[in-house]
Write a structure and sequence with these properties.
Blueprint: H1 2-8, E1 35-38, E2 55-65, E3 73-75, E4 84-90, E5 97-102, E6 104-105, H2 114-127, E7 142-153, E8 158-162, E9 171-176, H3 182-202, H4 207-213
Parallel strand pairs: 1-9
Antiparallel strand pairs: 2-5, 2-6, 2-7, 3-4, 4-5, 8-9
């Protein structure tokens, strides 16, 4: 990974920003920023200059256990309510099995709910009793319960160019709002971002004309 970063000239710089305009002065060389990629996820709701009110979390709670399942399983909707789902995914490279889950729109709570944990285990053991050799829920070896807030956008994922938000001819490419499918869609979205950036950097026309072209 370090070799790849060096080969591609990647430099990571950690910092905090409250407004997207602050990124104009954060290039590691101290030079002028020409392109900014906004992949701030749920942060796009409060990031100054963006403040996308279509952003809301979808709260997902999972339980990571030591037990392994010989097959993956996924079902949407359960008897425990529309906001709870069931899935069993043993990690291919080891590290336990993920039991899920929940799908709660608008819920910002980052703390695991023990009642949801209990229901997840109960459902998954009923669906995959071979995980515990038929010994029941007490045979589940919990590593931890975790919560993730998926960055959902009510009007759909946003992958687009924006030449007005920072001014001075700086291109901002937004790439956020993928909810729970960010991993699956990452390659295709990255290709689209690259296309937008390439069109900008290779173009010799004025920014106002470029806006319609992008």
């Amino acid at each position: 990974m370090n070799f790849l970063k060096a080969k591609l000239g990647v430099v990571f710089r950690r910092g905090s920003v409250s407004h997207i305009n602050e990124l104009r002065n954060m290039h590691h060389t101290g030079g002028k920023v020409e392109v900014i990629i906004n992949s701030s996820g749920l942060g796009s709701k409060t990031l100054g200059g963006v403040e996308d009110q279509d952003m809301t979390p979808i709260r997902g709670q999972i339980v990571l256990v030591e037990n392994e399942s010989p097959s993956m399983y996924n079902i949407s909707g359960t008897d425990d309510g529309a906001e709870e789902v069931s899935y069993v995914m043993t990690r291919a490279a080891g590290g336990g099995t993920v039991l899920g889950g929940s799908y709660q729109k608008g819920n910002w709570d980052p703390n695991p709910d023990p009642n949801i944990t209990e229901r997840i285990i109960k459902r998954c053991v009923a669906l995959r009793p071979n995980m515990v050799d038929g010994k029941g829920e007490d045979a589940i070896k919990v590593i931890r319960s975790s919560v993730g807030l998926r960055p959902y956008r009510k009007s759909g994922v946003r992958v687009e160019a924006d030449l007005g938000i920072c001014g001075d001819g700086i291109l901002v490419v937004h790439n956020y709002g993928h909810a729970g499918w960010g991993y699956q869609g990452s390659y295709g979205c990255a290709e689209r971002v690259l296309e937008l950036v390439t069109n900008f950097t290779q173009s010799k026309i004025e920014p106002k004309q470029l806006r319609s072209r992008l």
